[in-house]
Design a protein that fits this description.
Number of helices: 6
Structural class: mainly alpha
Distance between the termini: 22 Å
Number of strands: 0
Radius of gyration: 16 Å
Largest sheet: none
Length: 137
Amino acid sequence: MGLYLNKGNDLFEISVNDDIYVDKSELIACTNKVLGKRDRYICVSRPRRFGKSMAAEMLAAYYDKSCDSMLLFKDLKIARNSEFKKNLNKYDVIFWEIQNIIAESDGIDNLVDYLKISLIKELKAKYSDYMRPGFEF
């Protein structure tokens, strides 16, 4: 598992095991409906402290192909959806938490350069077999 590429499902597992977890997994069905379509860009907006990070962690855990999330989702509402298994753990996922990245990059002014360097390093490591000799980002 990488720092930003395919982080796995550990973060969402912590949320699911929490005493106050509220199942919002039907968001996955909404997301699955728009995959591969013009309207594929969605915005998950909620008020402060209302689960935006948890929703992102849930989506990452569902799509991330570096892990097996079947058991994690089996008792959630999304598991009753006929399309549940179609996209489960099928994709590479890039997961960024902006607050953490700002801190790691020594401030907002360095954010873009930090992201480029960090993500390109992970992509090169994962996809080195697919890179043409001499190719640079």
